[in-house]
User: What shape does this take?
Amino acid sequence: MRVTRRKLLIGIPAVLIGLPVLLILIYGVVPVPVTPLMLMRDAPIEKDWVSIDNIAPALQHAVIVSEDQRFCTHSGIDWTEMSKVLDELQETGEASRGASTITMQVVKNLYLWPSRSRVRKAIEIPLAVMMDFLLTKRRILELYLNIAEWGDGIYGAEAAAQRHFNVSAKALTRQQAARLVAVLPNPLERDPARPSNAVQSRANKIANDLYRAPATLWDCL
Assistant: This one.
């Protein structure tokens, strides 16, 4: 059967748009079995999917305070932070920080590759907007907390809490939660159980920010 150019022009975009939508909708209700990053690592995989109800609010809030303070108000992309980074790039030729939201990090972990590139970012941005439209903020955070890397072969809050602190994710204290967040985004080089001075200093700042932060930062949960 001959495939016309017109069918290809319609079919290829339909697949490129439809497949991500389908996967986002599936992961909106189904636990994520594996991610590209998990398959890329050599270490045995430790993970235990848990509901967000079984993850300490301290960890949920610490992630938002540290990683994405506009999580509840943006639509997948924090254009305010993105604009600051673009201005810095234009002025200095490099950026001292990233502008990835929690939603963008979920998209990267679920579908893309870890190394930075403009191509990856160009794919990541529309997928993040799509995910924010299709899923609730609560589910997006639940996805993030269950697939984030917290050590060599350690994925998700439950596995991280058990390995580093011998407690469940639900039992994490504010300081333990702050230490877990403080090792991001370099969990292979930092240890929340035996933090360096730099990691402990960052954890203390996160814990203090948690104490001072208004509840509106996470009222979408």
The chain has one domain: 5-218. DSSP finds ten helices and two strands in the chain. Residues 5-218 form a domain with the Penicillin binding protein transpeptidase fold fold (CATH 1.10.3810.10). Confidence is low (pLDDT under 50) at residues 7-15.
